[in-house]
Structure formats: C-alpha cells, structure tokens
Write a structure and sequence with these properties.
mainly alpha
Amino acid sequence: MEEASEKLDFEKASIFRDRIKSLNIIQSHKELMKLI
C-alpha cells in the first residue's frame, strides 16, 4: 500500500514539475515579446 502511494506522489510530482516548466517557458516567452 505504501509503495502505491509513493508511486502516486512521484507521478504527481512529475506532472507538477512539467507544469512549472511550461509556465516558466510561457513567462520567458512573454518577456521576450516585450523586448521585441
């Protein structure tokens, strides 16, 4: 049971990390557009 919850947490963490990465990309893209 514990193993399953750890795996779930790991999957959630990776999804969360991907979202943060996407947000960072969008944010830096916006910054670039301001400069142009």
